[in-house]
């Protein structure tokens, strides 16, 4: 964990629809922030160019692919050609899909890290049941993480409340990226299962994704620096 610089551990979610706005955010925050997350909103509005942000900013391409293995392999290959630092797929697509995506990426030169999304933090156990999944989120996250790592994923996306348990169960040698991170001074917005950047990193997260608390702050660059200071303290 110690080898990633604190500023590189913060991934700012560029949840905006306009390329111009996204570029402005990157120029404004790049002095402190190491990674930016390009998700469905920006990618759908802008296309593959969205991964080529100004100033060579590193990108987590958060498109959460979920399809049959053959289609997913094609998608991760196309994603890798855009040179993001991190890409993701749904672990629920199954072990064959994860294994084939991981194998396809490993054949490339400098491939992005492959993350498997476990259970979306917006799911409650009740909602999982209504989709036919009866084991509860906690057990499912752990089962999906075990399967994804065995199939060759470099890491997982999980809520900050699950990080500690995943580290205890599966050790240190995989990446955990966690959204739902809220500094103590910020609003929770619609995020329910949150933790502070300090707690998330102390518990074992490698990267934390923060969107609105930084983008909506009166001084966004200073807000990012405050989050990075918290990450630094957790790394000490
Ligand atoms: O603004 P906020 O900090 O809540 O942004 C968090 C980002 O992480 C959003 O882009 C959201 O889509 C993403 N995310 C999440 N929970 C997940 C997976 C992704 O909040 N389980």
Descriptive notes:
With 236 residues, the chain is α/β, with parallel strands linked by helices. It has a single domain (6-235), classed as Aldolase class I (TIM Barrel). Helices cover 43% and strands 16% of the residues. It has an eight-stranded parallel barrel, surrounded by six helices. Strand 7 (175-178), helix 9 (197-203) and strand 8 form a beta-alpha-beta unit. Helix 4 runs parallel beside helix 5 and helix 9 (197-203) runs parallel beside helix 11 (220-235). It starts with 5 loop residues before the first helix and ends with a helix. The model has no long low-confidence stretch (mean pLDDT 94).
Bound molecules: cytidine-5'-monophosphate
Please indicate the count of domains: 1
> What's the CATH H-level homologous superfamily?
Aldolase class I
CATH class, named Alpha Beta
First CA to last CA: what distance?
11 Å
Instruction: List the secondary-structure elements in sequence, H or E.
Output: HEHEHEHEHEHHEHEHEHH
Unreliable residue runs: none
Largest sheet: 8 strands, parallel, barrel
**Count of DSSP-assigned helices:** 11
Total number of beta strands: 8
Helix content bin:
40-55%
Q: How are the strands of the largest sheet arranged?
A: 1-2-3-4-5-6-7-8
Q: How much beta, percentage-wise?
A: 15-25%
Class per helix and strand makeup: alpha/beta
Examine the coordinates and then state which fold CATH places here, giving the name of the CATH topology.
TIM Barrel
CATH architecture: Alpha-Beta Barrel
**Overall spatial form:** globular
